[in-house]
Every structure is written in C-alpha cells, then in structure tokens.
Amino acid sequence: TDSRNDALVIGAKTVEKSLVKLESKGQVGNAREILERIQWHADADRLRQCDLVIEAVVENEHVKKEVLDK
Predict the structure, then answer these.
(1) pTM for the complete prediction?
(2) d(CA 49, CA 19)
(3) Quick count: other Cβ atoms within 10 Å of Cβ 19?
(4) What is the pLDDT of residues 31-59, one digit of tens each?
(5) Are 12 and 40 in contact, with CB atoms under 8 Å apart?
(6) Hey, which end of the chain has fewer CB within 10 Å, N or C?
C-alpha cells in the first residue's frame, strides 16, 4: 500500500542521513557503500529470502504479531 511505501522511503532517508552523519564523525566507513548493500522492501514475500530483516512497525503488539506472522 502507499502508506507502507511512504514509510519505507522515510525510513530509508533516515538511515541515509544517520550514516552520512556517522561517516562525517569517522564512526563508519563509506556511507554510500553501506547504503548500496541495503535492500528496502515492503512486500513480505520478498523478505523470506533475506538473511536479516529489521522490522520497523508501530509499537502495537497486535500489529507487530500480524507483520511477523507473515
């Protein structure tokens, strides 16, 4: 849905901003290289093949359970 895609874009921009800031402080290497290794997906079926998935859903037990059950 659009709301999931909007949240995904916002999350990606937040991570990018954080990595750039950490890079400027010398706490991480090349932020661009790190970002290139991250794949962003809102489709749960595409997540099944991932080695690591980070969920970022609203702090609501029912919603988290619904997302993680997929």
Answers:
(1) 0.71
(2) 25
(3) 20
(4) 999 999 998 887 878 878 888 888 777 88
(5) yes
(6) N
Query: Which amino acid, residue 22?
Result: L
- Whole-angstrom Cα distance, residue 12 to residue 69? 23
- Integer-rounded Cα Rg, in Å, for the chain is 14
Residue 11, pLDDT above cutoff 60: yes
Q: Above pLDDT 70, what percent of the chain?
A: 96
- The CA distance from 54 to 57, in Å, is 10
Tell me the three state secondary structure of residue 9: helix
Residue with tokens 């079926």: 45
Q: Which amino acid is at 40?
A: W
